[in-house]
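TA notes, week 10

Several of you asked for a full example with nothing omitted. So below is the full record: structure tokens for the whole chain, then the designed sequence directly under it. When grading your own attempts, check the secondary structure regions first.
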């Protein structure tokens, strides 16, 4: 299992840094975020250290979302966001893959999303589609 001795989340998994643990499997660990944007804001992380989602083995990745689902249900939130950031520009603060489970109890609490929609032409959309399809 890949670990990084300097990684705060690897230290949490190893119990070297305390956390409010919520759930654990052979491959994953979940705990309360210490800087919540709403009560119940939690993190679900792989035990395998990888900075970005595409660097994580599929079996480890597949273990995470069912846990996010359990936690979302446990919060009792009727509305919530699941968020996973990759890279500084994408607002990733800790370089260890993590999924946020963020209850959205009110307009003011929870995740506030900016969604700068663009309007590509049909040709631009087609070009993007062809580019992606060449790699899938
Ligand atoms: Zn780590």
């Amino acid at each position: 299992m890949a670990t990084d001795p300097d990684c705060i989340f690897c230290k949490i998994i190893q119990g070297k840094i305390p956390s409010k643990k919520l759930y654990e499997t052979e491959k994953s660990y979940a705990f309360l975020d210490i800087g919540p944007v709403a009560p119940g804001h939690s993190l679900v992380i792989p035990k395998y250290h990888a900075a970005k989602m595409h660097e994580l083995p599929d079996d480890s990745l597949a273990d995470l979302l069912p846990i996010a689902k359990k936690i979302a249900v446990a919060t009792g939130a009727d509305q919530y966001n699941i968020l996973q950031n990759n890279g500084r520009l994408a607002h990733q603060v800790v370089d260890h893959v993590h999924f946020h489970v963020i209850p959205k109890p009110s307009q003011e609490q929870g995740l506030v999303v900016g969604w700068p929609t663009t309007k590509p032409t049909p040709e631009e959309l087609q070009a993007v589609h062809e580019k992606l399809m060449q790699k899938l």
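The domain at 8-133 is CATH 3.30.428.10 (HIT family, subunit A). Use that as a sanity check on your answer.
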